[in-house]
Design a protein that fits this description.
The protein is of the alpha+beta class. The protein is built from 2 helices and 4 strands. A hairpin with a 2-residue loop joins strand 2 and strand 3. It binds iron/sulfur cluster (2 copies). One iron/sulfur cluster binds next to helix 2.
Length: 71
């Protein structure tokens, strides 16, 4: 299986309907990609995402998905 790494295409996705606003993604993101606004997470700076996967792994209801890289 070949996984292509596409430059400038960030795979981070946030399902705002599912989000319960716990703020964990905001706390674990090393690049301040998220902000919490009105009790929901929002993606503040998608381009800063380095796809580390921390947000997706720590979101309690899997509202965040990201294809985390291998390297
Ligand atoms: S994958 Fe990592 S860098 Fe990207 S938004 Fe999630 S925690 Fe932040
Ligand atoms: S960790 Fe998940 S539920 Fe919590 S604020 Fe972030 S997206 Fe919403």
């Amino acid at each position: 299986m070949a996984l292509k790494y596409l430059k400038d295409v960030v795979t981070l996705k946030l399902n705002k309907d599912k989000c319960i606003g716990c703020g964990i993604c905001f706390q674990v993101c090393p690049h301040q990609v998220f902000m919490i606004d009105g009790g929901k997470a929002d993606i503040r700076d998608k381009d800063s995402c380095m796809e580390c996967g921390a947000c997706a792994q720590n979101c309690p209801i899997n509202a965040v998905t990201v294809r985390s890289g291998v390297g």
